[in-house]
Amino acid sequence: MYSAIVLINVERKQVKQAADELSKLNGVKEVYSVAGEYDLVLTVSVDNKPEFADLVTDKIVHNELVHHTKTLFAMDQYK
């Protein structure tokens, strides 16, 4: 299993639209709007590396609504 947390910046007026669009992607488990440095936080999880690369790179990072991302790759899960 490949998992990550993706921190995302979008235009202020497009937070809801981006959240709705990104939440429909296969492998996106949770989408949160947050206050602070980032606008959205996504948790993603898929079964294989090619699917993971496609989801994070092609479908999230290169999404036209997304301006900036920071991806935190999960190493170990404790709970």
Q: Order of strands side by side in the largest beta sheet?
A: 2-3-1-4
Question: What amount of the residues lies in strands?
Answer: 35-45%
Radius of gyration: 12 Å
Q: Can you say what the CATH homologous superfamily is?
A: Lrp/AsnC effector binding domain/regulation of amino acid metabolism (RAM) domain
Task: Work out the helix count.
Answer: 2
Count the strands?
A: 4
CATH second-level architecture: 2-Layer Sandwich
Short note summarizing the structure:
The chain has 2 helices and 4 strands; from the N terminus they run βαββαβ. The mean pLDDT is 96. A hairpin with a 6-residue loop joins strand 2 (28-33) and strand 3 (40-46).
Describe the structure.
- With 79 residues, this protein is of the alpha+beta class.
- The protein has one domain: 2-Layer Sandwich (Alpha-Beta Plaits), CATH 3.30.70.920.
- It is 28% helix and 38% strand.
- The chain contains two helices and four strands.
- It has helices spanning 15-23, 49-61, and strands spanning 2-10, 28-33, 40-46, 66-73.
